[in-house]
Design brief:
40% helix; 3 domains; 19% strand; 12 helices; 17 strands; 6-stranded mixed sheet; transcription; alpha/beta; DNA-binding; Substrate-binding domain-containing protein; single chain; WH-like_DNA-bd_sf
Length: 393
């Protein structure tokens, strides 16, 4: 004897119950639970979305944000959904995808900042990518795509920003059906070069502060070493050169190198120190910590005293304080970047919920909340002064 298929109304009631039970559900999950084809599920979802019972997300559906009270129950300072007293403390949890180029250096503190800001009320799904466009696109697609991805509500992304492929990636990110906030990156898209929302460190300010510090310590012949693979290097160089010109410093070293883990690093580091000796440089700013520590070690092997002969300032302050001597360093506000990006994204989602609840408002947009202006937040780094930049003797 075969089991009688449920009536469409019964099937849709079960579908709604499943979505309410889990907060959101994917087409593949609903197809399995209901015992019907994905085509049938999509047809049912289309009807339920049309009458406002459910809200479509990538690959599935969820209870509409206005029903969950996102706009009405949002914390004033963070934008994080707050529990509704009538619900016994339960809150429908948002899912945010986070794509970073590394989970080993710099980015762990950014991740921790976002995690701490979430306070357990927002689910973060982390994916490590690289500095390659294809890798970032693949990881983002896995988070928002139709093929088994979790169907996130929004994205925090640190994409490449240089070159035509990065520009294409920016256009793709801007066209996604979920809000996107960039971390430590800035991108503009479209024919009018409109910016994506972002939270980033003012790295030019940071290197400028470091340059003022070495000038105050009496150094006049100064240098900069940056990584040719880092997206931060351009801003660091811009700030350094601007302040050096303002203060009338002699920039006698301005070199790009491979990262320390590259096989050619030892030769390029030796070239940096050769250049310092040839030009009489007495102070270097080095991006990043790893390269700065290695340069100090090689300088000491040559008999160059740090800081008596050569002052060194690192940029990033991940491990600079553990060097011998401890290195003065510029410290970007990494945790604040993660926390600020999550807060900005949650406020964008709250704006989206408000727009969905009042679709007739001028400029309202059910995806992004177009009444809310694009925010580009810039945070200031700090100079942490240690032994490696003592005043000239």
């Amino acid at each position: 004897m075969t089991e009688e298929a449920p009536l469409p109304s019964e099937r849709r009631a079960r579908l709604i119950a499943r979505v309410r039970e889990t907060g959101s559900a994917r087409v593949s999950d609903l197809s399995r639970v209901l015992g019907v084809t994905p085509v049938t599920v999509r047809r049912d979802l289309a009807l339920l979305v049309a009458d406002g019972t459910l809200e479509k997300v990538h690959g599935g559906a969820r209870i509409p944000a206005r029903s969950a009270g996102l706009g009405a129950r949002t914390g004033a300072s963070t934008g994080i959904p707050q529990p509704d007293p009538a619900s016994g403390g339960r809150v429908d949890q948002l899912t945010i995808g986070m794509v970073v180029p590394s989970i080993e250096y710099y980015w762990p503190e950014v991740i921790r900042g976002a995690r701490d800001a979430a306070r357990g009320e927002v689910r973060l799904i982390l994916r490590g990518a690289s500095y390659e466009v294809d890798q970032v696109r693949r990881q983002v697609a896995a988070l928002v795509g139709e093929d088994g991805g979790p169907g996130v509500d929004g994205l925090l992304v640190a994409p490449p920003v240089d070159g035509p492929e990065a520009a294409e990636l920016g256009e793709w990110l801007a066209g996604l059906n979920v809000p996107v906030v960039l971390m430590e990156r800035r991108l503009a898209t479209g024919p009018y070069r409109e910016p994506l929302e972002s939270v980033a460190t003012d790295h030019a300010l940071g290197s400028g502060v470091a340059t003022r510090h070495i000038a105050e310590r009496g150094h006049r012949r100064v240098g900069l070493v940056t990584s040719r693979t880092s997206p931060t290097s351009a801003a660091v160089r811009r700030g350094f050169l601007a302040v050096a010109d303002e203060l009338g410093l002699d920039v006698v070293v301005d070199l790009e190198t491979v990262p320390m883990f590259d096989a050619d690093w030892a030769d390029e580091a030796a070239s940096v120190l050769d250049r310092c000796a040839e030009t009489g440089a007495t102070a270097l700013i080095v991006h990043s910590d790893r390269e700065a520590i290695s340069l100090v070690e090689q300088a000491q092997e040559r008999g160059v005293r740090v800081p008596a002969d050569l002052a060194v300032i690192a940029y990033d302050d991940e491990v600079a304080g553990l060097a011998d001597p401890p290195l003065t360093a510029v410290r970007p506000p990494k945790a604040a970047i993660g926390a600020g990006a999550l807060e900005l994204l949650l406020r964008r989602l709250a704006a989206r919920a408000d727009a969905a609840a009042s679709p007739g408002s001028d400029g309202g947009d059910a995806v992004t909340g177009a009444d809310r202006p694009v925010h580009r937040i810039e945070l200031s780094p700090r100079l942490i002064v240690r032994a490696s930049s003592a005043a000239r003797e």
